[in-house]
């Protein structure tokens, strides 16, 4: 196989699950893996410069992405990209630039009493890119592990 | 998996029938009367009822037709220079049938475009070879003749040696230029010594002409690539370097060529000014995409880690088992 999988990460989605899924697909099929962390915000000021907030957002996103890469042992295998702006538009553009064959996005389970997964980004990508979108389901974790992952006791 | 839905006609019919039924029921169960001539209070009730009906109807029809709007947006996204893009059939109604028909049309268009692109590029290559041969054999010979004549004149009239020396320099420069253009038009090195040698020569020539530092990481693939694939890789590398020289304002370029698991990857990355937003699809980029399309390659044009632009071409070395495997 040859090709590219883009894993789209946003603030709201289940990042780690999406990275795990994308990494597994990439390894199994021999695809290049691109991790794209997109922060919702205004891309740049009118003169092309970034404001302090944007710079802080970019630095934080880069740091989070580096942590994810390290946690999943992808230092050698994954390429990383960070962008600020409208998430769906940017993910569509990144997929186009990278000639992606598939985009992996994270998702949450719908609330109590509702079946299926919820991913706003996947819904928006339907009209932003013709590249197929794969929604990575959240892994089932115990309440203790979930609390630990969220920084709880 | 496609969802079964009521056909669009029946949905619109049901919406309107439902509204009319609701109005009829309201008229029956509420004490509304219309006098002749109509009283002001009755006119107000009629107008409010009419407006409410129109608003509810517009809301319901908008929901019913929303999938068509989304479909139009999805259709507009498809780019024939990025083959294999197909819309997913999510519904089992008119929209689903339109999507299926659109996908079949894309199959035909891609096949026709691939064939016409192949013919155009073959004609272009043949024309380049012809021009290169004419430049080398005709213009080159004439210039060489002029140079020999100038040498003879210089020997016969040594008092004009200085002026003739300048003329000879100009003719030599013209000869060098003819040779350079001729070799760009017809990469003889590619035919004689193979892709890696041709890329090495291309990179060296680029560094010499532009004074931009070039780092080469070129390794021979383990499999023999077909000539049309080698030519596509060479031309895309050539166009990428031309773009660097013209637009990038770069001081350094990395050109690499290596074998992957089932593919070979060409990468040309510069440290120039890059691009903001999406790169403009000018003639050069379109030509690169056309060439990539003809050899079933994936062409990525994106921001480079070095700061400028990275062109990455991945060409499969094994043919896909079935057509349309991508996308």
Strand and helix map with partners:
The complex is a heterodimer of chains A (153) and B (327).
Chain A: E1 4-9, H1 15-29, E2 32-40, H2 52-71, E3 78-85, H3 87-97, E4 102-106, E5 108-109, E6 117-118, H4 120-125, E7 133-136, H5 143-149
Parallel strand pairs in A: 1-2, 1-4, 2-3, 4-7
Antiparallel strand pairs in A: 5-6
Chain B: H1 8-29, H2 40-77, H3 94-156, H4 161-185, H5 188-193, H6 195-210, E1 213-218, H7 227-248, E2 252-259, E3 263-270, H8 283-294, E4 298-303, E5 309-316
Parallel strand pairs in B: 1-2
Antiparallel strand pairs in B: 2-3, 3-5, 4-5
Can you tell me about this structure?
The complex is a heterodimer of chains A (153) and B (327). The N and C termini of chain A lie far apart (44 Å). Chain A has a single domain (4-149), classed as HUPs (Rossmann fold), CATH 3.40.50.620. Residues 149-153 of chain A have low confidence and may be disordered. Chain A has helices at 15-29, 52-71, 87-97, 120-125, 143-149, and strands at residues 4-9, 32-40, 78-85, 102-106, 108-109, 117-118, 133-136. Chain A is α/β, with parallel strands linked by helices and 153 residues long. Chain B has 327 residues and is of the alpha+beta class. Chain B folds into two domains: 8-113, no CATH class; 187-327, Heat Shock Protein 90. Chain B contains eight helices and five strands. Chain B is elongated, with a radius of gyration of 33 Å. Chain A binds chain B through residues 1-4, 30, 32, 48, 81, 92-94, 96-99, 101, 126-132, and chain B through 70, 73-74, 77-79, 82, 85-88, 260-263, 276, 278, 298-303, 312, 314, 316, 326-327.
